[in-house]
Amino acid sequence: MNNITCSCPEVILEAKLEEIQAIDNLEELVNLLLIRSNREREKMIEELVMENQGKIDKRVKDYEEIGMEIKELTYK
Fold it and tell me: Can you tell which superkingdom this protein's organism belongs to (predicted)?
C-alpha cells in the first residue's frame, strides 16, 4: 500500500485505484490457484483409480457374485 503524503483528490483517487487493482489481481491469483488445486486433485484421483483398477474390478466382481448368490437364495 502506498503512503499518501498529498491530500489532492487526484492523488487519493489514483492510490485507491491502484489498491483496487491489487485486490483484483490477488483475487484472480487465488481463483487460478483454486482451479489448479482442483485439477491436481482430479489428476490424483484418476491416478489412484488407475493404480487400483485391479482391486476395484475384483471388488465389483465379488459384489456381483454376492448379488447372484442372494438372488439364488431368494428365489429358492
Answer: Eukaryota
Q: What pLDDT digit, counting tens, does each position of 10-61 carry? A: 777 888 888 888 888 888 888 888 888 888 888 888 888 899 899 889 989 9
Q: How many Å apart are CA 9 and CA 17, to the nearest integer?
A: 12
Which are the contacts of 27, defined by CB distance < 8 A and separation ≥ 6? Answer: none
Q: Residue 19: what are its φ and ψ, rounded to 5°?
A: -65, -45
User: Nearest to residue 15, comparing CAs of 5, 2, 24?
Assistant: 2
**Residue 38 dihedral angles phi and psi, to the nearest 5°:** -65, -40
CA distance 70 to 65: 9
Instruction: Give pTM, 2 decimals.
Output: 0.43
Q: Which residues contact 1 (CB under 8 A, 6 or more apart)?
A: 19
